[in-house]
Design brief:
Length: 257
């Protein structure tokens, strides 16, 4: 056992440091020291907990944003019939292994929405490895003949798909330009149920030269696409009248021939 070090005072006396025995410290001093130690521990505990939480959050962020441990392994596509799943995945442009947290959902949505048959789309994360793309495609309300093929048109007048044969149950809009197609569809969606039942086709030869062809060879001269709802009501009332041609281009003053 090593002897305690000694020191010499200025008067030449030697002083030796001696470790006090536990029972040499008064109980009150020991209790005070213990309480002080406990206070220090209590004061340090929130800081330690905060540090632990910060370290854990940093670890999670690093795993989520900086590694492929929770990277994309699947792009799940739903709601397509005109489009194919590979077409949507290609438009989405999500690389396999990209950290799921770093996938720009808004950018994916914009890219998929740019596909002509898409009406709207939602993109979500399905942790830990999947991006879900839910597509709602446009609904055809008419077809436009184009040579031997047919263009599908939605209620906004958007041409979004081409098919080889005419789909059953859809009226025909005979038009050449995009503006004429939109005008024809605008008239079509304003028709009453009875007019739709008797409708064969909508012909648009110009912005103010729209005409309906009905069953039995009857015609409705529509004029332009303005006031279409009123024109539809007037034309429906005239269907019970004799005549082959009903002119509702000026719905306040109609003519029958």
């Amino acid at each position: 056992m090593t002897a305690p070090p000694s020191t010499r005072s200025s008067s030449g006396r030697r002083w030796r440091l001696v470790r006090a025995r536990p029972d040499a410290v008064p109980p009150s001093v020991r209790r005070f020291s213990q309480r002080a130690r406990r206070r220090r521990l209590r004061a340090a505990r929130p800081w330690a907990a905060g540090l632990a939480v910060a370290l854990l959050a940093g670890l999670i962020a690093w795993i989520g944003y900086g590694t492929s441990l929770v990277g994309v392994r699947e792009v799940r596509v739903t709601g397509v019939s005109v489009l194919t799943v590979p077409e949507v995945r290609q438009a989405a442009g999500i690389r396999r292994g990209t950290p799921l947290a770093r996938v720009d959902l808004a950018a994916v949505r914009r890219r998929v929405t740019a596909l002509a048959p898409v009406d709207h789309v939602t993109v979500t994360r399905d942790w830990p490895h999947t991006v879900v793309v839910r597509v709602t495609e446009r609904t055809a309300v008419a077809v436009v003949p184009q040579g031997r093929k047919f263009l599908l048109v939605d209620r906004a007048g958007v041409v979004y798909h081409t098919v080889a044969s005419r789909p059953s149950g859809l009226p025909t809009v005979a038009a050449r330009s995009a503006g004429d197609i939109k005008a024809g569809v605008q008239v079509l969606v304003a028709l009453t149920p009875r007019l739709r039942d008797e409708l064969v086709s909508v012909t648009v030869d110009g912005p103010a030269r729209i005409q309906l062809k009905l069953v039995g060879g009857r015609k409705v001269v529509w004029g332009d696409a303005t006031r279409s709802e009123l024109k539809a009501k007037v034309a429906t009332a005239l269907l019970s009248r004799e005549g082959e041609t009903f002119d509702v281009s000026a719905p306040d003053v109609v003519t029958i021939r």
